[in-house]
Amino acid sequence: MKVLVIGGGAREHALCRSLSQDPAVTELHCAPGNAGIAQVATVHPVDQLDGAAVAALARRLGSDLVVVGPEAPLVAGVSDAVRAAGIPVFGPSGEAAQLEGSKAFAKDVMAGAGVPTARSYVCTTEAEAAEALDAFGAPYVVKDDGLAAGKGVVVTADRAEALAHAVSCDRVVIEEYLDGPEVSLFAITDGVTVLPLVPAQDFKRALDGDQGPNTGGMGAYSPLPWAPEGLVQEVLETVLQPTVDELRHRGTPFSGLLYAGLALTSRGTRVIEFNARFGDPETQVVLARLRTPLAGVLLAAAEGTLDTLEPLRWDEGAAVTVVIASEGYPAAPRTGDPIDGLDAVEAEGAYVLHAGTAAGPAGEVLSAGGRVLSVTAAGADLAEARELAYRGVARISLKGGQHRTDIALKAAQ
Ligand code: AMP
Ligand code: GLY
Fold it and tell me: Which ligand gives the minimal distance to the CA of 218?
């Protein structure tokens, strides 16, 4: 099977790593990729938002499957262009990807499907926003309606800050605050059958102890030893399957990866958000535990035959990933610095997945984005996986680089 992956972050590196280990994959390509992906796949330049260009590349490569990684090309309809070219694609249509592209659309789908989520108002004026803030009270939750790479959400006790964020966006969703731990649960679906993966937890805040601004995610781990028994089945029945069914009944079937961001509140499980693609950095730990070869699963989702698959097989152990971000992330990341020590990580029992990296003129690896890379390790349990991941992190040096030191710490204790 010849597979083309679209994207160039750590999620795509994790996908390419798994696909490169799948004996069914005879050729692996990635566009645009990054410096790390180039070690496991043939990389090609492409404008990943240009559906016609992606479809033409897939045709030229004779791809049997295209996997669209990030949300921006999905929302731009890149999957539609590839599908229209007659090539199986893992990733929802542009319309179905609105589940992530518009928070207001997601709320509407959840209402139609009876899926539990925070009560919310969609606001377009300052007066509406002020009224909604006061209706719920502090802590305030204000979300930019459109795509914002995980940075469009402000959660604050400061009413003025909440209102200022609302005013700075065209349209916002203001909602009730959900207390309780967060869980990310991914499911692979062909629009009918839903196959949940294993739960993971992401660390959204930039600093230790969940302080600092929201980011795209600073680390993750799986499994969640503290999660209630039966959680996956409950979320399948109350969230994932009803959402997939609702989208199909609306005439916008969703195939690809459905990501449920959940809060386990004192009043039950609630959806915080949906994404229409694999989460980053959770994918790094979920795929680290997947034993079933990946390509056949993604192809079955693309071709609508998930119901014929054997149950997925998982490693009983644990996986931890720690993100190294550049100085100034998330507000103003600095780029262009050399990254040293990459070759020393594997000797520590961990591996590097590149996110924002680029090859320098002398073949050195340079930082090229906010989240630069993530160091991932598997172990018999969380304590071991954590130990190995942090040993790997310690080998890497990047000027001004920052990482959290408490990823999976509480769960491992
Ligand atoms: P989102 O982009 O919707 O995932 O939001 C980013 C982060 O903001 C989430 O992972 C939560 O940590 C936080 N957040 C979002 N919505 C709420 C909410 N209703 N209550 C509490 N925290 C929230
Ligand atoms: N880990 C958060 C996200 O992928 O949106």
Answer: 2
Tell whether 100 is covered by a domain.
no
Look at the chain and report how many structural domains it folds into.
4
Identify the nearest ligand to the CA of 285 by its number.
2
The closest of 254, 308, 302 to 113, measured between CA atoms, is 254
Contact, 393 vs 320, CB < 8 A?
Answer: no
Q: Whose CA is nearest to atom 4 of ligand 2?
A: 279
Let me know if residue 159 belongs to a domain: yes
Question: How far apart are the CA of 201 and the centre of ligand 1, in A?
Answer: 13
The residue whose CA has the least distance to atom 3 of ligand 2 is 279
Task: Please report the atom of ligand 2 found closest to the CA of residue 278.
Answer: 4
Measured from CB, residues less than 6 Å from any atom of ligand 2 are: 150, 202, 217, 275, 279-280, 282
Asked which of 257, 273, 308 is the last residue of a domain, the reply is: 308
Q: What torsion, rounded to 10 degrees, do the Cα atoms 227, 228, 233, 237 define?
A: -100
> Which ligand places an atom closest to the C-alpha of 156?
1
Residue 370 gets which letter from DSSP?
Answer: S
Tell me which residue range forms the domain holding 376. 318-412
Q: Which CATH number belongs to the domain containing residue 324 in this structure?
A: 3.90.600.10
Rounded to the nearest angstrom, the gap between the alpha carbon of residue 252 and the centroid of all alpha carbons in its chain is 22
For a ligand 2 pocket test, name from 282, 353, 404, 407 the mutation site with the most ligand atoms within 8 angstroms of its C-beta: 282
Residue 101 maps to a domain: no
Q: Which residue is it, tokens 């720690």?
A: 322
Global confidence as pTM: 0.94
Same domain membership, residue 325 and residue 303: no
What gap in Å lies between CA 27 and CA 168, rounded to an integer?
Answer: 46
Q: How far apart are CA 284 and CA 287, in angstroms?
A: 6
Per-residue pLDDT of the chain (413 residues; tens, 9 = 90+): 999 999 999 999 999 999 999 999 999 999 999 999 999 999 999 999 999 999 999 999 999 999 999 999 999 999 999 999 999 999 999 999 999 999 889 999 999 999 999 999 999 999 999 999 999 999 999 998 877 665 688 999 999 999 999 999 989 999 999 999 999 999 999 999 999 999 999 999 999 999 998 898 999 999 999 999 999 999 999 999 999 999 999 999 999 999 999 999 999 999 999 999 999 999 999 999 999 999 999 999 999 999 999 999 999 999 999 999 999 999 999 999 999 999 999 999 999 999 999 999 988 999 999 999 999 999 999 999 999 999 999 999 999 999 999 999 999 99
- Residue among 100, 155, 173 whose CB has most ligand 1 atoms within 8 A, to mutate: 155
